[in-house]
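Notes from hallway chat w/ T.B., transcribed later so I don't forget. T.B. wanted the structure written out for a chain they're using in a teaching module, and asked if we could keep both sequence and structure tokens in one place. Agreed to drop them here.
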Amino acid sequence: MTFKGWTAAAALLLVTAPGVGHAVTDADFAARTTGDLVALCDPQSDSAIANAAVNFCSGFAQGVVSLEMEHDAGSRSMKLFCLPDPPPTRNEALGEFVKWARASPERMNASATDGLIRFLGERYPCPKRR
């Protein structure tokens, strides 16, 4: 898949709709930790800022993925994740991220960027080279 194809797949992958998560606060928009990002990606649907939270989550995740893919395109180092072809739906990917982060409380304390990249690497590992 070409870089342009990967970018389109990543864009599709990282947009989500509000779910039935936890109360999101203005402080979560700092997106310092994976826990903050989880709150933004899965806000309570009755929250006054739920739409803003989901849009922020989507943009943050897209930025992280795009930056990492740009880095991978110009580097000979091992990629941190490899999206499948076809990629999962956007709701599936961020829904899995939220479940993954909540499954281990220690994950919630990692930086938002590290948590997202770690999830992608564990969920979508690159094939081993021989």
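Follow-up for T.B.: The two ends are 21 Å apart (CA to CA). Might be a good example for the class.
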